[in-house]
Amino acid sequence: MTTQYLLDFLLYPLQWLNFDFKKIFSTTWRGERPGMALVAKLFKDVDIPEDATLYHLDHDSLKVIQEGTAYFYGQIIKENGPLENCLLEKSSLKFFPHEVVLISIKNSQNELVCSEVYHGGQYWCRSEENIRSEINKLCFKARKRGLTIEEIEVAHTHPSLEVLVEYSGESKFIFNGLSKSDKETAHRIATFLDFPLRIKAITPSANYSMLF
What are the φ/ψ torsions at residue 204 (nearest 5 degrees)? Predict the structure, then answer.
């Protein structure tokens, strides 16, 4: 557990003391309504108008949007599999949504070489320095075992909803794929590596990745 995780966890109840929960219930959801912890986080992070109608975007919806727009700027969108769902479960989506990160060494022998799952805060997990250090340790371990490294993957969760918001005849999308900060950090780390680096952001709807 990181210091940021413990701090965010301890202060989590205080975030809701002055929160207007009535606003959550003034909106309408089309389709299945997500869990309360994720809905509350959405309303805390984003200004959602009262009486808005919200649509929870799933993987198929995101793929259709990707094919018809330039919203995602080269990010690869895939459906979540067992690994991604496991990391989302560790992100405590039903109680305390927070980021977790897992660093893996992909190799030709398909042997498992990965870090422990690190828990961070609601919007941040491991520092760039920590990630570089962990990558170096894992690469050394893989080489020592005689493995052929193909790429390095840094997968982290973005425990936030992706929705279409409609109100007063207008609409807007809220996406949570790779952020500008994610891509800038990946680019800096990749310059020090001998192998391709894949950065992956995992949301409850899908996972987004780019290779550097």
Answer: -60, -20
